[in-house]
Each structure stands twice: as structure tokens, then as C-alpha cells.
Amino acid sequence: MSTGALTRGAPPEDAGPAEAAAELVADLVTRPAGRTSVSVYETARLVSLAPWLTRHAERIRHLLAAQRPDGGWGGPEGYALVPTLSAVEALLAVLDRDAPVGWSVHGVRHGVDRALRLLHGPAGPAAYPVPDLPAADLVVPALAERIGERLTDPPAGLEGWRGTGPPPLPAGLDRRRLDRVRLLAGSGVGLPPKLAHALEVLGPAARRLPAVVPTPAGPVGASPAATAAWLGTPDDSRPATVDYLRAVVTEHGGPVPCATPITVFERSWVISTLARAGVPLAVPPALAADLRDALGPDGAATGPGLPTDADTTAVTLYALARLGRPVDPSCLSRYDTGAHFCTWRGEDGASVTTNAHVLEALGWGADRPATAVSRRVIGWLLDQQRADGSWTDRWHASPYYATCCAVLALHDHGGPAARPAVRRAVGWVRDTQRPDGGWGRWRSTAEETAYALQMLLAGPGGPTVDAVVLRAARRLSLLDVARDDPPLWHDKDLYHPEAIVRAAVVAASKLAAERLRGHPYSPAGPWSALLE
Predict the structure, then answer these.
(1) Do 485 and 444 form a contact (C-beta atoms < 8 A)?
(2) What is the DSSP string of 167-226?
(3) How far, in Å, CA of 500 to CA of 517, rounded?
(4) pLDDT, averaged in runs of 10, over the chain (532 residues)
(5) What 3-state class would DSSP assign to 440?
(6) For residues 63 and 44, what is the distance between their CA atoms, to the nearest angstrom?
(7) C-alpha 470: how far from its chain's center?
(8) HSE (side-chain half, CA atoms, 13 Å) at 516
(9) For residues 166 and 500, what is the distance between their CA atoms, to the nearest angstrom?
């Protein structure tokens, strides 16, 4: 099978789910760092912080090419704020510092002017609520402050912006938490592990901060930007850290993603998604062993230098159980708040998808009956459902991802109490299908269509449902994951974990083909009662 056949939402009779799964699993082995899209935010931070790093000009050109017609960068609405601020600050640094090698001074100046007009305008990204992106309450004020400083004496051609100060912050956002983090960093007491991923918000104070130690492989917080901020100017004392940065920019041709490597995250999500849908899997023993070894007393972490978290831990446990290698899930108890499970200890807010994954990890297997803990998680999930039947989550821009996670977990482990909630969710999915047959928050995407199909296809058939499925399957076969799908996952910037999304598409395509051939799929029992 060609890579193109896997990339598109091809139905299994054309591509073959086992063959598609084999290609995905092989990719997990040959590319252990994982596949994730490059980030305007993170790339711009390297432009500003590490002009010495190879492929600097390629990063500048990437920023210029990625600018939108309205002057911003990134996703719709408030999702443009973080990447636009980062790109503006980086391009101002370029005008202040760099000789024009491989890029146009006029092009950079024009790009900055357009972006500043958007940031200061009434319809700019600051007019929207700040999305729940990790460290946004630190990143946004830090970048706005730095832009204001650079505009005190702006580069030639941008004199009209002199003294305008920092771009306006969204309503309700201020710099108080940033100030507290800076004071904490300067105190020598140490920083919470989660802050290593956004260490660049400290500015010059991040350089060789004693409280932060790179991992043996080189990265700080699994982040190129945080690593560059900590390293400062390279020297011979930290060769692994320099090698990490060079390898990341080489892998992606200059631009970089927000987080890398994402080995455990990618492997556990891909395997669990395919296995849940009944796609035949041949997982090498070494890969399964690596997943098992990733689980320590506190669970597993997405990447080196990141704290362990309940989400990665739960999906890893579930994937291993599906592979017939179950592990005692007691390490999850470290994340139990008494009301729900936090993603990591000290988390601000709560995650629907983390708790859905915890419910699956606690409940999978015939020898794991419902417990008081799982019943409490079920109740918490039911309480989070919105009036229209959907769920939303802090780790993804689309309600289809959150709703899919909640529906599958509640169907398998929620019992009779969850049936009305699942019925409302499936009704919401049916009601929100787009005229083209797909689903999506902003437009139809292969990823969101795959999530919607997984919810619909777990239920009973019938003329109405099957007609919806047929239209959706046809639409899915026309969508290209790599070409058509926007980044929807939350990090410091929106990102697209390609292998994880492809796994969702393969799973949905396999289930759709079974339904349309008259063989409905049910992972844990009949659904007929849910839609009566």
C-alpha cells in the first residue's frame, strides 16, 4: 500500500486495515521521536533565541510563508494570538540583528507591520478568549512585553510604531502569574517540572538556570524553544543539548514542533485506537516492552523532561491491556484528587479526555469490575456533558475528540447510568454532520469525521444511521490527513500528531466498511438500548 493510500481516509476494502496498521506500527519503530507538525510559535522562538542554529534562514522564510492574508499566524479566533505574538517578536529581532541572507528586509518589515495592525485592531486575536493552551497565561504576557520593548526603538521602516507599547492583552489576562514564576526562578528554590516545557518565558534568566537540568539526550522539557532558552550560546560543555537542537531542525527542514520526542504518547494512542476498533495488529515485542518500561511508580510521561501525567499513563495502560500485557493500574492513584483525576499534580483546571482514558484503564478486562473510584469518574464525566450532548476538553480544539473519548469510555464502562448521556451525544453527532458529509469545528476534517464515525458506528444500524455513515465514509475517503487537516491538538501552539490522526482514520474506515457490509461492530456489548 502506498503512503498516500494511508494518508487519505481510504476505506479498508481499498487500503486494508491490517496493512494500514502494519505501516503505522512500522513507523512507530523507525521514527521513535514521533510525527508532529511544525509550530509557528516554536519556530519563531528559535529565530529569536538561537540565530546561530543551522537553517536559520529557512525558519525566517517559513514564518513569512505561513503568514495569513490578514497579517496573523496560526488557527482561527484566539488561536492566532500565541503564534502571531511569537512571529512578530522574532521578526523584530531579525530586523534588529540579522543581515538579510536568504530573506527580504522589505518582506520582513511588511509582515511585522501587517501583524501589528492586526494585534492592535478591534477584531484581532486578543478580542477572543484565550484558548486553554499550556502556559498561555505566561507566554502571551511575556511576548507582548518583549514586543513593547523592541518598539521603544523600532527598526527602520517601522518608526510609526515607536512608543506604542505592547500589544493589548485579552480581557482577564494579566502578567501576575508570569511575575510570580520569574520571582520563583530567581529565588533558587526550583520550578515545578511542568514549567520546563515553557522555560523560554523567563527570557535571559532561563540561560543555564541551575534548577533546570537537561535530560541525558539533551532536551529541556521536550521543547526546542525551552532548550534553546536554557542553552543560550552553545559551547562544548553541552554537546547533547546542541545535538538535540540540530537533529530537530534537520528532521523538519528548519522549522520545529512544540514538543519532541513524543514517543510514548504517539505509540500508546496509535495502538489503543487501532486495537479498540478491532484492526489486526502485529506489534513487535520490543515496542510493547518499551511501553511497559515507560511506566514507573508515577506512570508515564509524553516526552523526556516532561512530568509524568495521568493521560499518557492511562492510555499506555489501556494499550498494553489490549495487547494482552496488562499492568496494575495502581500508579494512577497518584492523580486522584478525590473528585476526578488530574492530568498532572498541581494542574490548573481538569480534563475530560484524561478522565475518560483513566476510566478505560481502570475498567478494561473481565477481572476489573466497577469500583467506587470508577463510579466516581463516571459521575464526574456525566456532570461535564454540555446541554447539547457534547463534551469539550483542554487538550484539543474540537469537541468531536472530547466527545468521542467520553462516549467510548462511558459506553464500555458507564453502565445504565451513562446511557442517556451517550444517547444525547450520538444525537448531537448526527445533528451536526455538515452538508458535505463530514464533521468539524470550523470545516470538515478527516480527523473529526473519524471521531464522529467511531461514535456512530459503535451503535446499531438502520436506514437513517447507515445513510449518515455512507455519506461520511465517502467524504472521509476524499480527505487527505496530511494535506487537508489543520492542527487541532493543544500545546503552546496548535499541532497535528499525524500518526495518531491516521490511526483514527484507519479505525473509522474499517468500522464503516463493516457496517456497510452488514456486520456492525461493538467493542463491549450491544448498543441497541442506547438509541431506543
Answers:
(1) no
(2) PPPPTT--SHHHHHHHHHHHHTS---GGGGGGGGGGGGGGTT-TT----TTS-BTTBHHH
(3) 26
(4) 40 64 96 96 98 97 97 97 98 92 91 97 93 96 97 95 95 94 89 92 95 94 98 92 97 97 98 95 96 97 92 98 94 96 90 98 72 95 98 98 97 92 94 96 96 87 82 90 91 97 95 78 35 28
(5) coil
(6) 7
(7) 29
(8) 18
(9) 38
Query: Over the stretch 409-459, which tens digit does the pLDDT of each residue have?
Result: 998 999 999 999 999 999 999 999 999 999 999 999 999 999 999 999 876
DSSP codes of every residue in 16-45: -HHHHHHHHHHHHHH-TT------HHHHHH
Helix, strand, coil percentages in the chain from 3-state DSSP, rounded to 5: 55, 5, 40
Residue 15: alpha-carbon gap to chain centroid: 27
Q: Which DSSP string corresponds to 280-292? A: -----HHHHHHHH
pTM beyond 0.85, yes or no: yes
Taking the C-alpha atoms of residue 226 and residue 86, their distance in angstroms, rounded to an integer, is: 14
Joined together, the cell numbers standing for residue 255 give 522549522
Are 451 and 503 in contact by the 8 Å Cβ rule? The answer is: no
Contact 260, 224 (CB under 8 A): yes
**Amino acid identity for residue 505 in this structure:** V
In angstroms, how far is CA 52 from the centroid of its own chain? 29
The SS3 call for residue 296 is strand
Show Cβ contacts of residue 7 under 8 Å, excluding neighbours closer than 6 positions: 480, 481, 482, 483, 502
